[in-house]
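User: I'm writing a tutorial on reading structure tokens. Could you give me a worked example: one chain, its sequence, then its tokens, then a sentence or two explaining what the tokens reveal?
Assistant: Sure. Here is the example chain.
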Amino acid sequence: MVSLRPVMGAMTVTLSACIAQPLPSTAPDTAPVTTAAPATAVTTTSPASPDATAAADRLYGGLGETVDRDAIAELAESGDVRFAWLLTDLMQFIGPGITNDALVNGFQVLTGVVLAGDTSPWSESSNYLIGEDIPAPPGYRQLKGQLYTLVEPRWEPFFEDPSSQIEYRHLAWGGVLPDDRPLGGFDVPCEGGCIPALDDPAVTDAAGGDWYPDDAVVFGVVAGGESRAYPKNIMEVHEMVIDTVGGVRLGIPYCTLCGSAQAYDLESIPEGVEPPLLRTSGLLVRSNKLMYDLNTWSAFDTFTGRALSGPLREADVELEMVSVVTSTWGAWKEAHPQTTIVAADGGIGRTYPEDPLRGRDDDGPIFPIGNVDPRLPVQTQVLGVQHGETFVAFPADEAVAALRAGQAVTFEEIVVELDGNGLKARLSGGDELVTHQAFWFAWSQFHPTTDVWSADLLE
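And here are its predicted structure tokens:
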């Protein structure tokens, strides 16, 4: 048996817009590899053997002191593929060595899949389990909670709700810890390192935004008759802004990993519910950041605005989305001459690099996402549109090129138009639709029935 405590103590996170890479793992080159035929298909409700359940409890219950390799071997021999999730989850936190080799070997025995070693074993095995939709083992929420609260005790509320709608199989550590600073607490240090939200930033008029290059990207919001631009480089550092635009109190998360800036009306809540104070949890679900409400520690689906756990899930909170337009600054201020823009220092005296992520996402997702809809490359930016039960993805570059060429970009009743040199959508009757852009892998995983518009439809 090996102690997990030194591994946890060695974990470091940095106050950075760049989410840290997972701790390194190794392919099984010091432990024998055994392969077997995949275990018999199981369902979520299939009973587990008492021996496998006991081994799982022993493995996860002892993580504060040891990683029990005998328990790993017992799970591998159980023939119940669901327990592969427990082995894979541990891979993210166990560095190279015999214990990681045992986890990899156990995974291969349970699944019959030999890991190729092209990426980390944790990433490769996670992608397999997500892609094959392998069910979770009995008691998975509580077991995973034991692991994650050992890493960060503040995450405990995310595992307490027995009716939680968090998909725990897809939950992963993003490399940073929770931002639990109070509203306006920009001078309060993040304990252990976090991605710090920017609350009520200072803004200037368009002329005062000459510090920002005209060809640099902004995320534009129009609410209550007022428009505001959020520079991408500032959003990459903070990934969450709390702001008031046109009298509308907004939470604006930016998921750098899925290329999606969104805006939510924080007061679109049931009567008697306190408006949430959105923060970044440090956790991911299929490479999509998991945000939460600091007041109640209720988890939120960043992509949909729906409360997934805690008191706000019980109150059935689903925040109303406000459109976000991805444009260059020069084109946005030309289209919206009365716009404001976040000040160069955010109002907190900070200096922001021009390119905080330095091309981190250029080669595709860096965290597990499972299978990807092959109709478009994973990192294609699409304008996502919903109208009733219809979901449509408009590849952004294609749509912009078509519109600039004077062509109409439509799909059934949906009409796409330029806003700055970004995109927005409305119905043919004139009513605007709420939209935002995202990487294709993110939009398609949340809306698997989505249609895809193509410039070929114009021919």
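What the tokens reveal: Residues 98-111 form the longest helix (14 residues). Residues 1-40 have pLDDT under 50 and may be disordered.
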